[in-house]
Amino acid sequence: MASGASPTPGRPGGLPSWSLRARLTLVATALLGVGVAAGAALLVVTGSRALQTAVDSGALQSAQEVAALVNTDRLPDPVPVGGEGTAAIQVVDAQGRVRAASVGTDRLVPVLRPAELAQARAGERLVISGTRIGLTGPLRVVAVPAGPAGDPQTVVVAVDFGGAKSGARVLAIGLAIGAPLLLATVGVAMWLVTGRALRPVEALRRGAASLSGPGRLPVPVAQDEIRRLAETLNGMLARLDAAGARQRAFVSDAAHELRSPLASARTQLEVAAMVDAGTPAGELAGDVLLDVERLSRLVDDLLLLARLDEAPRRPREPVDLVGLATDVVGRYAAARVIVRLDPCEGDCVVRADPGAVRRVLTNLVDNAVRHARTAVRVSVGPGLLTVTDDGPGIPAADRDRVFDRFTRLDQARGRDQGGAGLGLAIVRELVTAHGGTVTLSDASPGLVATVRLPDPADDGVPEPGIGGRRGTR
């Protein structure tokens, strides 16, 4: 990444958003590509050197054979051509004159110039153009000293070098074509192999994504590291489920055990308030009775939440939302603010738990009446319930937080009539158990609580523990 470039959004340090499978395939193919490129280069160099060595060896052998004939004064004229591919043989004296030559070779002009001849006599291998002797393509030239000391001569052998260069070029072209095909084949194979190897990991991911309650991850058949990981995670999930079950059982048992003494205390306080009415003792009994009633509602809410955690799916039957809303609104005739009902036109029947829907609407109306300035409006539509008040509303940043358990905004904490922070949490749990949604929005002024329940024809309720359950436990 160039200096000053901004990193990829959502990726630490600007890492590319490639899958592990793609990265493994890319890295493996890249490493193999480096190895193949190095091997191909080495093969081309080695092959070229081998062909060159073979050419030099044949030319040198021919030159040594001719030199032996010169040394024994048995050189025939013309000079015989021994090795395959030999283009020309000349025997040149110290003055640069051609003493003998092979058939078809110039007997007047040496193949090598004086400076080149000196280099060749020193052991260098030269490459010259074949046009010097009327041929096409390059020639490889070697020279071997011969003759007596008083008459030094040089045997010059020129062989065709175009075949060796063509062979090296064919090898390079073949590798240039074959190497990418090999890399492509290996890349496809790596993609398939890594996909098969990572399939259990994807199964674990999908299993983990579908879990939001009791359940286990799928365990691969193979006895490998991924199976051990799945078994370890399932053990952790079992421990978490056991801890959650113990916590829910404790809350349920505690709430259940508290109901009896609270009911007894409530009865006694009601009697004391009636008997001692108008006296300080009666007033004290009335105040304590209010706290006991509030504590009783809290215990009932805790018990309901514990039962929802144990069995989140609710039984369903046809529920007339208009009739249910009419019954609920009728109980607020003596409320401190007006509670009005706007019934829907047409079919407003849903399949739901009537007790749960009643509890949802009651909690929302209680909350609206507690904060409204002058009026509360309840509207009913097909699969829809809305409760609107003209109170101070809730800031947008807090509209999701208020659905958490035991969450109350600061202004609610200052009210004597404020709840325990479980009403909206119960609403969300019950609505979610029906596969519906509950949202809060601005009424300008005030707040609108909107509950959407599934269509009557759609009975596809999520299975317990699967899909979108929210809320702390």
Secondary structure blueprint with pairings:
Elements: H1 20-71, E1 86-93, E2 98-101, H2 114-121, E3 126-129, E4 138-146, E5 153-160, H3 162-210, H4 225-275, H5 280-310, E6 317-320, H6 321-330, E7 338-342, E8 349-352, H7 354-371, E9 375-381, E10 384-389, H8 410-413, H9 423-433, E11 437-442, E12 447-452
Parallel strand pairs: 7-9
Antiparallel strand pairs: 1-2, 1-5, 3-4, 4-5, 6-8, 9-10, 10-12, 11-12
Explain what you see.
This protein is α+β, with helices and mostly antiparallel strands and 473 residues long. The protein has three domains: 18-210, Beta-Lactamase (2-Layer Sandwich); 225-306, Signal transduction histidine kinase, dimerisation/phosphotransfer (DHp) domain (Helix Hairpins, Orthogonal Bundle); 314-452, Histidine kinase-like ATPase, C-terminal domain (Heat Shock Protein 90). The protein contains nine helices and twelve strands. The chain has helices spanning 20-71, 114-121, 162-210, 225-275, 280-310, 321-330, 354-371, 410-413, 423-433, and strands at residues 86-93, 98-101, 126-129, 138-146, 153-160, 317-320, 338-342, 349-352, 375-381, 384-389, 437-442, 447-452. The strands form three sheets. Strands 2-1-5-4-3 form a five-stranded antiparallel sheet. It has a five-stranded mixed sheet with strand order 7-9-10-12-11. The chain has a two-stranded antiparallel sheet with strand order 6-8. β11 (437-442) and β12 (447-452) form a beta hairpin.
Describe this structure in a few short sentences.
The chain is α+β, with helices and mostly antiparallel strands and 473 residues long. Helices cover 49% and strands 15% of the residues.
